[in-house]
């Protein structure tokens, strides 16, 4: 029990160090001419990525990717040219790692052009690389529950790999445990990469999950009961029947009042 408390403390400490996600940051953004790289990105969404957020997707640098914990995070991005670009900018979901540190984001073509004022989308596209400012925002899936997709590499019984979909709010899942429904014996799952978690010791029978979720300097456990049936199948998406909607609890002064964004 003491080890678990220390583990949670370490999680919250790391989260507090990286707090103030909603502060405004300034960098550059480029775009993909076609979206195929984003369907094979480092987060592990695969072709599922192209159906997220109407295709408004982004690859982020390592500080945003955060060893995979940043996958699924949502950002509002707007370019600095007031003549070409709107104040609303574009809203994207992080689905890939950008290894080019000259710009914080590489956006899908659709998301990049969405920064434009009406009729200026092609002019914005011609820029290629754009000066931008951005901040993290909560993800909103319009009431969609958190879902688990069993990866095709899984085999029942024994090895279970899952992908986390529709993670709402402004949060990070930092640990997942799985147990047979009704059992107190939890098995720790490891982050394989991005949104993919796995274990080679998956319990038999219908399965429940426990997620350790952080948001800013705050964190909590979320239980999802009776998620996978005993005969779970690879490639199938299962509804957890829970929603994650937490907003990051941050001490971000002086940017708490959002004046830098206006």
Automatic annotation (TrEMBL):
Secretion signal span:
1-19
Give the originating organism: Chenopodium quinoa
- Going by the entry's taxonomy, the superkingdom of the source organism is recorded as Eukaryota
What GO biological process, any one, is recorded here? Answer: anatomical structure morphogenesis
Q: Which UniProt keywords apply?
A: Secreted, Signal
- Cellular location of this protein? Secreted
Domain (Expansin-like CBD) spans 158-240
- Asked if Cytoplasm is a keyword of the record, the answer is no
Q: Could you give one GO CC term from the UniProt record?
A: extracellular region
> What range(s) does the Expansin-like EG45 domain occupy?
40-144
Query: Could you identify this protein by its name?
Result: Expansin-like A2
The similarity annotation says:
Belongs to the expansin family.
InterPro entries under this entry?
A: Expan_Lol_pI, Expansin/allergen_DPBB_dom, Expansin_CBD, Expansin_CBD_sf, LolPI, RlpA-like_DPBB, RlpA-like_sf
Alphabetized Pfam families for the sequence = DPBB_1 (PF03330), Expansin_C (PF01357)
